[in-house]
Every structure is written in structure tokens, then in C-alpha cells.
Design brief:
heterodimer, A: alpha+beta, four-stranded mixed sheet, two-stranded antiparallel sheet, 9 helices, B: mainly alpha, 8 helices
């Protein structure tokens, strides 16, 4: 695969178009977004399967994502409470390794006055402590609320059935941010546009594995055709159950009553909330028709009041 | 196993995982101006079509006011975008699954028809065509009739836009759309009352005083339904005292002051006090609604 990447680097570069006048540039800006290309041929659905049981929290995925997608650094600051110094997914962090520390019998150490935990009060018995790590990313929902919300058509399902934001179309209305039940999409303070994981669309088009999956040293992040990944995950859960991990479960590999399956799904060993995932994600669009109906009825009843007054007393 | 606090949230990663959008004061004013323009148009159009002799002279003044309010709404809408120069990208697609897309198209058609009405009125007022020209009258009436459903759509989409999200509070607000469209009509009737009082149309004033009074009561019902939806979150976020103060504010500005002003008479001053008080109440409620997800997270 590495040689393929070198080939991509050395492939012919696109020539810069000659500069044009301001009127032409203005018209391009005005009319350009309305031009439609041909939709690419549909490919097998691709996605991520993240096995959190083998994540070691190395953050290679975060680094690889930032490097490939040329995302700026977010600064470097310790929270004082964890090795998680990324905090959350953002417009410039499309991968985020979560660190969850759990204690069986001992109470977790109390932070001192400045909100930090002293290393001297960490428990003496390592077996009482469990660290869960999870590399979080956009879930690439099959019916994605962000895509349903987007009024410009900037958010699409691409030929690999991944949720993709067309950066030249997004106008930063922020509706996708409000619609996402996982808190993934963020509007950039620099460009004003919404950003999130593209599932390395550019690499996929060239037949390459997404940067994070490529960099993951433990195969915690696996990439491939979604059906194969689901089968692989199912076998892994069975294996973990046999090996005495009864809490092993899949998250997002199958649809629920309130949400479709995810094209980026997880193997967890605790409740989803522990990892910062909603226990039962809900697609807000399930309410939409009912809300319109209530609004229409209320509007009609309200308008009937002045209408009646005008007909009875105003004529 | 017990999970340690490892992020600013006291429950670690558990808790509310959604991110509130960067919607703040501009959005509050966007909702307000949206309600003011669509409500005024709706009530003026219904009045003009139901009782033309009484309401056409008032509606003639109402449409330019509605257009000015619509322009203010557009300014808020455009400026609130992350990239304002791309506002026209909203018109790339018509997507009924997106309340924002449906609202954009409703507003676009409504704005074109409202502009046409005002243009016809302007042309007639300037004497370029006779004011009683049949063609001009037909164009204007057609634009008023066709504009009704689009003005209604423009008023109705906003609440559904908020309730069709994953944000705490908004996602539970099943009656938000109903409340906003109800407020739009109430505000519109109050605005028309001011215009009628200013133009001295006494029959219109008397009729509108009655209509606004009834609408204020209906608005209280819609607000109660909305608060019922939001109560679990509101009671968690705010202390009983804060809740009481907010309730008192809304009751005073949304009911007591406007109702007293209506009872005091139908002169421009009392009508203006009533509409100003209603706008104040609307602003308060809209501020509270827009900040809900920010307070919850």
C-alpha cells in the first residue's frame, strides 16, 4: 500500500487555471454552486469497525488524520484529569481518542483544590482499575440527521455510502450541528463552514485505506466493506463472551426502532454512556411530520380567530 | 465499575453529548422579525379578503411595513451564516426533508409576492397607473391570495426547524411550531391594530382590538403547551424562583399590559403600548428558547 501512496504523490498535478477578471470570478461564485456534475457510480458501502478492547490510546489515528487532512493543531493543554488532551471532536479534530478510567472498589481519587488529581493518591492495586479507550469519529449514519437537515445539499452520501460534506457548498448555517445526536459536526471559527471526518474520501477514491485505520498499530480501527466488518465484529463479540467478557457488545451495527445502523460502529465492553455515546440515539426526523401537523392545526385555529372577527364585526 | 471524572463534565464523557449550534442573539431577532412580517401579512391579507371595505386601506400600509420587517429578517438570516456570501447556496436544492430548506423556499416565494404587492401599490401611488386599474388590482389580489400559503409556511417552518434537532429542550418541544405560528398571528394583528389606529380606520380598530384580545388568550394556551413540553428540562436547569420571575415577566408583558392597553382604548398610543409589550414578551420567550441547549450543556 505504501508504494501506492507514493504513486499518488507523484501523480500529475492539476494545472492552476489562468486568472480571470473580477466579473468572471463573481459570476463563478454566484452560478458555480448551481452546476451539477454526474453522480459517480455507486460502490460497495465502506465503513469503520472500531474494536475498543484493543485500543491502547496511542493517538496515532488522531495524528494521522490531522496530517493527511492538513488540519491545524488545537494547541496543547492538559485537562489535569486525564491523558485525553483533545477533549472532543471538533472542526479541526476529526478523530478523538477517549480515555475512560474506572475503579472497582476504591473510590476514584478526589481532585485537589485546583481540580487536578495528584499522582500520589492513585490506587495501589492496579487490578482494581480499568482503562477503556475508544477512538471516536463521525458515525456515518445510514439515515444521517445532518444530511437530512442540510438545506444546501452540501452534505451527501457519497458513492461509498459515507456521509460527506462538500466544502465548496456548505454555507455554515449550523443546522447539521444541531441535528447530530452524537455531537460530531462542528462549525469552524476560521472558515465558517461545517467540518467532520470524510472517511478519507480522497484516499478511498484512490483505493487507499483511511489514514487513521492505516496508522492504527493494534487494528482497533478496521476499515472495509461494511458487511464484512459486521461479520468480523460479530465473531469478535462471540470470542470475547467465550473468554469471559460478558459485557462485550456491538454499538450501531444494527438498526434500532429510533435510529438506523451506523457505517462506523463500535465494539464496547460497558454501557454506551460511559464512552460518551447516547444509549438510544434518536433520529429527530421521526417527529417532523407530527410537528408540522400540530403547527398547521394551531395556525389554522389561530387564523380562524381574526377571520371570524373580521367577518362578524368588520364587514 | 465507577467511572472517574476525566473531563470538565463531572460525569466524565457521560451526559449530554450533543453540541449546541452557534445560534445566539441574531437567531432570536430572526425568529422575531419572521413572526412580525409573516403575521402582519397574514392578518392584513385575511382582513382584506374577508372585509375589503374595512381593511384594504389598512392593508395598503401594512404590506410595505411587512416588507421592511422581512428585509430585517433576511439581514439576520444572512449575517448568522458562517459564510454569509454563500447565502444563495440555500437555493441550490429544494429539500422538503429539511425544514430550513422548506422555509427558505417559502420565504423566497413570499418575499417575491410581497415585493410585487408593494411595487403595484407604489406604481399606483406614484400615478404611473390609475389606482383603480383593473389589471393592477387583479395582480395585487392574486399576489395576496397566492402569498397566503407561503407566508403561512414561512411562519410555520421555524418552530419545526428547532424541534427537528437533537438538542436538549428543542427536541422535546412538540408545540414550539404551534406556539411560534400562533405568536406570529397575534403580533401581526397587534401591528395591524397600530396601523389602523394611525390611519384612523375606526371600524378596523374596534374589530382588531377584539381579535387581539382573543388571540392573547389563545397565545397563553399555546405557551402553556410549550412549557409543558419543556418543563422537565426547565425544572432541572432553573431554580423555582427564576422560573417564577420569568413566568411573571411573560404574564405581565404578554397578557396584562397588552390587555389593559386594549381596554384603555383604540388610539395609536395604547395600540403601540400593546404591540411593544407583546414584542417584549416574545423576545423574552425566544431568548429563553434559543439559549436552552447552551444552558443544558
Amino acid at each position: 500500500m505504501a508504494s501506492r501512496e507514493l504513486e499518488v504523490v507523484h501523480s500529475p498535478q492539476v494545472e492552476t487555471p489562468p486568472s480571470r477578471g473580477p466579473l468572471s470570478a463573481f459570476l463563478d461564485r454566484l452560478i458555480g454552486p448551481f452546476h451539477r456534475g454526474e453522480a459517480p457510480e455507486r460502490k460497495p458501502a465502506m465503513g469503520f469497525y472500531t474494536d475498543t478492547t484493543v485500543c491502547i490510546g496511542c493517538k496515532a489515528c488522531e495524528v494521522a488524520c490531522k496530517q493527511w487532512n492538513q488540519l491545524p493543531a488545537d494547541g496543547f493543554a492538559w485537562t489535569g484529569n486525564s491523558y485525553d488532551n483533545t477533549g472532543e471532536l471538533s472542526a479541526t479534530s476529526w478523530r478523538h481518542v477517549k480515555f475512560v478510567e474506572q475503579f472497582a472498589d476504591n473510590q476514584p481519587p478526589e481532585p485537589t483544590g485546583n481540580g487536578r488529581v495528584s499522582l500520589h493518591v492513585l490506587p495501589d492495586q492496579p487490578h482494581d482499575v480499568r482503562w477503556l479507550m475508544m477512538s471516536d469519529v463521525c458515525k456515518h449514519c445510514v439515515a444521517a440527521p445532518c444530511q437530512q437537515a442540510c438545506p444546501t445539499g452540501a452534505i451527501i452520501h457519497n458513492e461509498f455510502a459515507n456521509v460527506y460534506i462538500q466544502p465548496d457548498i456548505c454555507n455554515g448555517c449550523g443546522y447539521c450541528v444541531a441535528a447530530c445526536p452524537f455531537g460530531v459536526i462542528t462549525r469552524s471559527t476560521l472558515s465558517g463552514h461545517a467540518h467532520k471526518c470524510t472517511l478519507c474520501y480522497d484516499r478511498q477514491k484512490d483505493g487507499l485505506v483511511p489514514a487513521c485505520a492505516k496508522a492504527c498499530p493494534t487494528a482497533s480501527i478496521q476499515f472495509g466493506p461494511i458487511d464484512e466488518l459486521r461479520e468480523r465484529a460479530r465473531r469478535r463479540v462471540e470470542e470475547l463472551h467465550r473468554r469471559g467478557v460478558p459485557g462485550a457488545r456491538m454499538y450501531g451495527s444494527a438498526p434500532t426502532e429510533t435510529y438506523t445502523e451506523l457505517h462506523s460502529f463500535y465494539l464496547l465492553v460497558d454501557r454506551p454512556e460511559v464512552y460518551g455515546l447516547p444509549e438510544a440515539p434518536f433520529n429527530p426526523w421521526l417527529h417532523m411530520l407530527g410537528d408540522y401537523f400540530r403547527t398547521a392545526i394551531a395556525g389554522a385555529v389561530t387564523l380562524a380567530v381574526p377571520l371570524a372577527a373580521f367577518l362578524l364585526w368588520g364587514a | 465499575m465507577q467511572t472517574k471524572t476525566n473531563l470538565p463534565s463531572p460525569t466524565g464523557y457521560a451526559g449530554i453529548v450533543t453540541k449546541p449550534p452557534e445560534w445566539h442573539t441574531l437567531v432570536v431577532f430572526d425568529i422575531l422579525f419572521n413572526n412580525l412580517t409573516t403575521g402582519l401579512f397574514l392578518v392584513a391579507a385575511v382582513g382584506e379578503l374577508a372585509a375589503p371595505a374595512t381593511f384594504t386601506p389598512v392593508a395598503t400600509w401594512a404590506y410595505p411595513v411587512a416588507l421592511a420587517l422581512l428585509l430585517a429578517d433576511f439581514a439576520c438570516l444572512v449575517l448568522d451564516l458562517g459564510d454569509s456570501l454563500r447565502f444563495h447556496h440555500m437555493l441550490r436544492v429544494f429539500k422538503p426533508s429539511s425544514p430550513m430548506s422548506l422555509g427558505t423556499w417559502s420565504l423566497t416565494v413570499y418575499s417575491l409576492l410581497l415585493t410585487a404587492i408593494v411595487a403595484v401599490e407604489f406604481v399606483a401611488a406614484a400615478g404611473w397607473v390609475p389606482g383603480d386599474s383593473a389589471a393592477a388590482w387583479w395582480i395585487r389580489t392574486l399576489a395576496v391570495v397566492v402569498g397566503l400559503p407561503f407566508a403561512f409556511g414561512s411562519a410555520a417552518y421555524k418552530g419545526v426547524l428547532f424541534s427537528t434537532t437533537a438538542q436538549p429542550g428543542w427536541k422535546d418541544a412538540r408545540w414550539l411550531g404551534a406556539y411560534l405560528v400562533n405568536t406570529a398571528v397575534t403580533l401581526g394583528a397587534a401591528e395591524l391594530l397600530v396601523i389602523a389606529a394611525l390611519t384612523g380606520e375606526q371600524l378596523a380598530v374596534d374589530t382588531l382590538r377584539l381579535a387581539v384580545g382573543l388571540l392573547i388568550v389563545l397565545n397563553l394556551v399555546a405557551l402553556a403547551l410549550l412549557v409543558g413540553d419543556l418543563y422537565p428540562l426547565l425544572s432541572r436547569l432553573y431554580a423555582r424562583r427564576e422560573f417564577g420571575v420569568a413566568g411573571l415577566f411573560v404574564l405581565l408583558t404578554g397578557v396584562v399590559i397588552p390587555a389593559s392597553s386594549l381596554l384603555a382604548g383604540g388610539v395609536p398610543v395604547t395600540a403601540s403600548v400593546a404591540v411593544a409589550s407583546l414584542i417584549l414578551a416574545s423576545l423574552g420567550v425566544r431568548f429563553a428558547i434559543v439559549r436552552l441547549p447552551h444552558d443544558a450543556t
